[in-house]
Amino acid sequence: MIHDFPLTEWFFYAVRWLYGVLGNSYFLTILIVTLILRLIQVYPDIKSRQTQQKQAALQPEIDKLKKKYADNPQKLNQEQNKLMKENGIGCLAGCLPMLLTLPLFFCFLAAFRFWGYEQTVKLTYETIENRELAQETYDSFKFLWINNIWQPDSGFAAVVTPADTVATYGSSASACSCSGSSKSIGDLVLFHKGYTDLRGNYVSGEQIWQTFVENGLAEGEFGSEGMKLVQTEESQKKYDELMSVYKKGKNNGWFILPILATGFQFLMAWLGQRQTKKQNPGAAQQPGMNAMMYLFPVMSLFICMSSTSAFSLYWVLSSVFQIISSTIINRLLSKKAQNAGEITAK
Fold first, then answer.
1. Other CB atoms closer than 10 Å to residue 255's CB: what's the count?
2. How far apart are CA 228 and CA 69, in angstroms?
3. pLDDT tens, the chain, 346 aa long
4. Rounded to whole angstroms, how far apart are CA atoms 118 and 187?
5. Position 188 in a domain
6. Alpha carbon of 226 to those of 30, 42, 116, 201, 230: distances in Å?
7. Its pTM surpasses 0.70
8. What is the DSSP letter of 284?
9. Which of 45, 116, 161, 269 can pair with 293 through a Cys bridge, CB separation 3.0 to 4.6 Å?
10. How many domains does the chain have?
11. Residue 251 domain-assigned?
């Protein structure tokens, strides 16, 4: 969508551009974008882990302060903040990865949803104009066990986007944008930039819209605020007839990506808690840490079951990259701290 939250737009333009550069490969596009985003998060991740190491080293001093000011919480808080400041530990340093990850997560989720909208609109247009080309496009949506990467990896999800879902494209309820503002179907980048099909032919947004209007699927003058998809029983029946040439049913996937996303998120949380205990074995378990260990994996399960398989694939790859990079960073920092301890001992 254009006129959306800037970060969402940038992500969308980036994946759209990469998709063309990489020979229309969805997997390579998602893989490279995921790797780039993970690399962006490496530096704040390193700073966060360095802060955690410093906090672990200060734990004996913090314990002394807790005993000394057990009856004066306000003074305890002041002295703890003073101790942290003297040792160069910022209050928000340990939260940087989370502060960066969450906006990226929601904006990338929105960008993938918009991309899925465009692919469905494109397939519908080609089904009307050129069934042979449309079949090639539909075949390109297949990924391993998933029939359509723009539908959820779920045994309950329709292989082709249902008519009632398509009819909501452009509404504020379906946009899931970071801005939360009301959207129009005309805000899809596809209608402003057009696209190049698998055979190298350019198709303009106006051409797509006029075809939709002529076939009773849309109404409103192209480029106006009145552009909208028709939500009548007749138009939805027309859409269903068009898309009936593709495999139908409630078996787009087998829940594999949502399960993988949940498993990797749980592994990531477990490894994080294990590293914290290793750095600071004497520290008390913070209330709510066990709950958070299960919260994000459960969230991942439900989000991936209701989102496109393309986003689920991104989330799985992102989790894998994060586990690998975190393991490497932890080992390097531990080795550095060990070497520094040996030098101090000498």
1. 18
2. 65
3. 676 778 888 888 888 889 889 888 999 999 999 998 888 888 877 877 777 777 777 777 877 888 888 777 888 888 878 887 877 776 555 565 666 677 777 888 888 889 999 999 999 999 999 999 999 999 999 999 999 999 999 988 889 998 888 888 866 544 444 544 446 888 899 999 999 999 999 999 999 999 999 999 999 999 888 899 998 999 999 999 999 888 766 689 999 999 999 999 999 888 877 776 776 665 555 555 566 677 889 989 999 999 999 999 999 999 999 899 888 888 888 777 666 655 555 5
4. 11
5. yes
6. 34, 45, 22, 28, 11
7. yes
8. P
9. 269
10. 1
11. yes
- Domain membership flag for residue 263: yes
Distance CA 67, CA 81 (A): 16
Angle, vertex CA 22, rays to CA 254 and CA 136, nearest 5? 55
Instruction: Identify the CA nearest to 98 among candidates 233, 292, 312, 231.
Output: 292
E strand or H helix that includes residue 218? strand 218-219
For 38, other C-beta atoms within 10 Å of its C-beta total 19
Q: Would residue 311 count as lying in a domain?
A: yes
57's tokens: 């080293």
| Domain containing residue 247 | 1-57+92-346
- In angstroms, the CA 189 to CA 4 distance is 11
